[in-house]
Amino acid sequence: MKIKMNFTMEVRTRAIPKGRPRFRRVGSSSCVYTPKRTRDYEQMIAEEYKSQIGAIFPGPLKVSIDIGSRMPKSIRKREATLRNGLEAVSRIGDVDNLAKSILDALNGVAYQDDSMITELSVKKHCSISDYIVINFQGDYDV
């Protein structure tokens, strides 16, 4: 018998792409670290997951991510309403880096390792406000 697990979480925040690793010299060796902005963002996503869902998926899963980015203030409200969801947005970063920051944040929180993700879908578009909607689906034997 199979059980379908389907969870959706929504975070009302601006999506931040994964920052490049930074290097710092410490004496004769170097140290690699993640930028603070990326670390803070990933921690916030993980905390939201724990408060909204909290379950750890036991096996393979499908993940879909929908990223809405607020339109520039230079666009009038009426025009923004007409464009809502219809226009692609390029100013918030590459889709792969946006997904990477979200998936890395949930690694060890929503699933044991991101290698458990068998299917990934990511969309980004203009919207009236910033948001991220993440849907998780898995079929598991009981």
Q: What is shown here, in short?
A:
25% of the residues lie in helices and 37% in strands. The protein has 142 residues and is an alpha+beta fold. It has a single domain (2-141), classed as Holliday junction resolvase RusA (60s Ribosomal Protein L30, Chain: A).
Radius of gyration: 17 Å
Number of distinct beta strands: 6
Q: From the 3D coordinates, which CATH architecture would you assign?
A: 2-Layer Sandwich
Assign an overall shape. flat
Q: Strand order, biggest sheet?
A: 1-6-4-5
Work out the helix count.
3
Question: Care to describe what's here?
Answer:
This protein has 142 residues and is an alpha+beta fold. The chain has a single domain (2-141), classed as Holliday junction resolvase RusA (60s Ribosomal Protein L30, Chain: A, 2-Layer Sandwich). Helix content is 25%, strand content 37%. The protein has helices at 36-52, 77-83, 95-106, and strands at residues 2-11, 22-26, 29-33, 61-70, 117-127, 131-141. The strands form 2 sheets. The chain has a 4-stranded mixed sheet. The longest helix has 17 residues, at 36-52. The chain is flat.
